[in-house]
Amino acid sequence: MKLKTSFVCQQCGYESPSWYGKCPNCGTWNALVETVKEEAVKSTFARGPLAKVGVKPQKLSDVKHIEKNRLKSNIVEFDRVMGGGIVQGSVTLLSGDPGIGKSTLLLHVLDKVGGLYVSGEESAEQVKLRAKRMGITGENIEILAETGVESIVSYLSTLGNLSNLVIVDSIQTLSSDDLEGLAGSVGQLRHCAELLTSVAKAKGIPLAIIGHVTKEGTIAGPKVLEHMVDTVLFLEGERFANARILRTLKNRFGPVEEVGIFEMKGEGLKEVSNPSALFLQDRVKNVPGSVVTVLLEGTRPMLVEIQALVVPSQIPLPRRVGNGIDYNRLQLLIAILQKRLNIPLGTFDVFVNVSGGLKIGEPAADLAVAVAIISSFKNKPLDPKAAVFGELGLLGEVRSIGSEERRTKEARRLGFTTVISPKTVRSVKQAAEILG
Ligand code: TYD
Ligand code: MG
Fold first, then answer.
1. To pair with 388 at 20 to 30 A between CA atoms, which of 18, 109, 246, 297?
2. Of 229, 248, 273, which residue sits at a domain end?
3. What is the C-alpha to C-alpha distance for residues 164 and 145, in angstroms, rounded to an integer?
4. 244: Cβ below 6 Å to ligand 1?
5. Residue of the CA atom closest to atom 13 of ligand 1
């Protein structure tokens, strides 16, 4: 049978039956590579002689559900994100920027649960060195430095039913002899992941695959694997800040809204059970432009410092620079302040920063950002024992947000006696008056 092929963009995964010089989807030049279409082979089987006869549905109420065994690492922040531990026979993809701490995190987990570390990225000695730095002796860790996916799969298939974790670091370094593309190309990624996944499923091996996101920030590489795996984790943070946040983008065996917080230290990643303390550790009190807000990450409230700096602009189109805040949201908040409070921000540069390399993903921080900007503009510090949260509407009104009670409680627990929230102020104007 003739092999079916298609042309796959190595940048975004776009598939086309014919070749283009420029990818019609993402516009990258010379990125389409001919790739064997494995689905085509499979679908002929499904229609042909291998189709099962007499398949029958059953009542959903009759389906027995047995809670699967989970491997617990006892790293609370990790287990919670996984939904209580790693499910036997499940495949997890951990993605994130290069250098963010993926190998480190999974080495910690492996140390706790025991298992095999397949390293395509580093030699056995390099992994040993890292482990040593992290205080891991490695008695219950086996290491296999290998990049040929066939060799890895053939080793895994010789194993008896294994409950130990297997880590593959990273999928981009593996390649198969069946394909021409270089390691890391979309075709190779898919094929290697497919081989690994099927052996993991057949053997009931819990498998964790590491995948880097590409420089462009799209998860072009790992993205094409997301539908093949059970769980997709994403580790994020600013490279030069210490906080790391582990998120679930997909989880067939647990909730997706949980996050795990870690701190990168000299001896590896440390769990952070009190994230507010971490994000507020460098705060300088009584300085204009500093406001503490309460963000909700997953189900957890955490206190974070927002800093703003407002200075007269030397250029006709003043600068708006946001670190950890969406640029359009920042512009919107500035516009609201100009219109509703008559603050002439049109001639001022505005810089906003979120502490700890955190990214604001909800409008709940609007009011805090606004108050920080006003505070810097007026050169008046906010009461250091005040925490601020609430969404801002276009009319300058303060709108209520989710989990206000929980946020208030967390602020009070950490000694913030004044809470400026939708419960206490109705408009940004009223909030500004608190600054005097
Ligand atoms: P690493 O886990 O190798 O990242 P990834 O696998 O995501 O590419 O971690 C990379 C960075 O973390 C590296 O720049 C050094 C730093 N690091 C520490 O600060 N402390 C440590 O104990 C370890 C192991 C790494
Ligand atoms: Mg690594």
1. 246
2. 273
3. 18
4. no
5. 99
Pocket residue to mutate for ligand 1, from 242, 264, 265, 267, most atoms within 8 A of Cβ: 264
For residue 166, being part of any structural domain is answered with: yes
Residues 243 and 283 in one domain: no
Global pTM value: 0.80
Give 344 Cα–ligand 2 centroid separation in angstroms.
Answer: 48
State whether 282 and 188 are in the same domain. Answer: no
Domain check: are 155 and 261 in the same one?
Answer: yes
pLDDT, mean of residues 298-304 = 88
The closest alpha carbon to 368, from 387, 342, 348, 344, belongs to 387
Span 316-360, pLDDT tens digits: 999 999 999 999 999 999 999 999 999 999 999 999 999 887 889
Farthest-apart Cα atoms in the chain, separation = 81
Span 281-299, pLDDT tens digits = 888 889 999 999 999 988 8
Look at the chain and report how many structural domains it folds into.
3
Domain range spanning residue 303?
278-433
Cα separation, 420 vs 340, in Å, equals: 19
Q: Are 88 and 69 in contact (CB under 8 A)?
A: yes
CB neighbour burial string for 19-55, b if at least 16 within 10 angstroms, e if fewer? eeeebeeeebeebbbebbbeeeeeeeeeeeeeeeeee
